[in-house]
UniProtKB/TrEMBL annotation, chain A:
GO terms for biological process: iron-sulfur cluster assembly. Transmembrane segments: none annotated. It comes from the Bacteria. InterPro entries: NIF_FeS_clus_asmbl_NifU_N (IPR002871). This is SUF system NifU family Fe-S cluster assembly protein. CDD domains: IscU_like. GO terms for molecular function: iron ion binding; iron-sulfur cluster binding. The lineage of its organism: Bacteria, Pseudomonadati, Pseudomonadota, Alphaproteobacteria, Acetobacterales. Residues 9-129 form the NIF system FeS cluster assembly NifU N-terminal domain.
UniProtKB/TrEMBL annotation, chain B:
This is cysteine desulfurase. SUPFAM superfamilies: PLP-dependent transferases. Gene3D superfamilies: Aspartate Aminotransferase, domain 1, Type I PLP-dependent aspartate aminotransferase-like (Major domain). It is an enzyme of class 2 (transferase). Keywords: Pyridoxal phosphate, Transferase. GO terms for molecular function: cysteine desulfurase activity; pyridoxal phosphate binding. It comes from the Bacteria. Pfam families: Aminotran_5 (PF00266).
Amino acid sequence: MFDDVRDLYNATIIDRGRRPHHMRRLDQFDATAKGDNPMCGDRVQVWVKYGPDGTISDTGFDARGCEISKASADLMVEAVAGQTAEDTKRLFAAFRTMAQTGACPDCAAAMEPLRLLASVHEYPSRVKCATLPWHALIAALDGGGRATSE
Amino acid sequence: MNDMAPTLDIQRIRADFPILTQTVRGKPLVFLDSAASAQKPRAVIDAMVGAMETQYANVHRGLHWMSERTTDAYEAARDAAARLLNAGDRHEIVFVRNSTEAINLVANSYGRGILKPGQAVLISGMEHHSNIVPWQMLRDSHGTLLRVAPVTDAGELDIEAYEKLLADGRVGLVAITHMSNVLGTYTPAERLIKLAHAHGAKVLLDGSQAVVHRRVDVQALDADFYAFTGHKLYGPTGIGVLYGKRELLEAMPPWMGGGEMISSVSYERSTWAEVPHKFEAGTPAILEGIGLRAAIEYVESVGYDAIAAHEASLIDHALARMSAIPGVTIIGRAQDRGGVVSFTLDRAHAHDVATLLDRNGIAVRAGHHCAEPLMHRFGLESTARASFGIYTTHAEIDTLADTLVKVREFFA
Ligand SMILES: Cc1ncc(COP(=O)(O)O)c(C=O)c1O
């Protein structure tokens, strides 16, 4: 019955949604921000630590929400490791475009693991689930506070 | 249809709702989201289109034929709403945009105009945000207090606690749902109103859900205010009703100013129109009013006895089928309940459940249902919710249950 949803709910997404590798609060961090999606009640908090060169050295998150938002947060952590804030913002822009359209224009190598979420564009009401952790991350990079995916 | 027999001919009813023949992703639409907004019968569609095609002008202000006819059609909606709620007087029916606006009207007019700072507004722990936030805003701007009567584990109002919260006599207004949009619980309105009146408080019932499923008699209840929204009652969006006892409405100041609501205007002062027009500033939702009348007449033609009996059997069926599915937890087990079933599934978040159900043509809602404090009361962030309408069938509930079993297998 659900064969066609395997494009989004593929094995990796389900596994990451259920047992995220990076769902943890960082004890030491340089920036943090919360994100919430008031439409559906999903919440996420992201913590970031920078390395000496200013790139992201570690990211952790805590999330209450669906498999898509947790899997997205988990993959995001890996995608932004070692990236500068500028690179991360570019990556987010590309990710958002991919989530909305399915296409990944000038896809950087860092986008590769995120492609697993590309078919979320076929589920318009779920796009915000996938982008929510990114909104929180960008808010953290911009100095903290709150973000929403509205 | 025979008025005496509380049955309805479900196939005939379904034939009245054109949208129900639609397919979704190649599957027949199984629309289980009527508590968010209900589908519209042909009678409503025809009434609105017919008005636009044959009989439309602004109301209450034209001296010409079209305006007079349109005014009659629009005002007939007021009579229909008065009849629906058994209001004693058609002037007690104020047209608003929706329940949210009705509650805001009471908060801004009765709240600021009649309640005194230091008096309390008492709500319950199972309110929709639209019956929470206006009272917080009133508290913050006007100095009233906000009290919340708790909900039991079964999802019923804790009556003892409710009575205690009334005991000191400070509560000026009780604003409480007549039926929860999350738990399906009916509150014991008559008893709540008696208790409130005994302690000197007026009562506003949020009837957004209740009026869809059950006959409401504001006089028998002795309700001071009653709010409902047209789009959940098989009518159009953009129109709702606030019933208020006439002496209360007359004592209340207007909320919004403008055309329609005045008797005379000069730069020094203006005087207000009689109720209900005092509360109806600006050109009203004319077509929506006409549509609402058609919706009310449609519901009346089916009859509340038949509707209530049909829905009671749907709920029994749904609770039996869904309780039998391992991993499904039903939130709220009230004795007296209407056609709403909120549930969680052990293996998947409500959004993921809703997305998969949608793949089989089933529309349910997932999230906090605009009732975050209630969700937190049950330690939840979100649930999935199936809600039933006049056109819902037992077979649709079977489709839901069978699909839920498969959803659970999918997330094994
Ligand atoms: C119990 C309850 N109250 C109030 C509302 C608000 O209705 P509306 O959005 O039409 O104002 C709803 C519906 O969403 C509801 O279920």
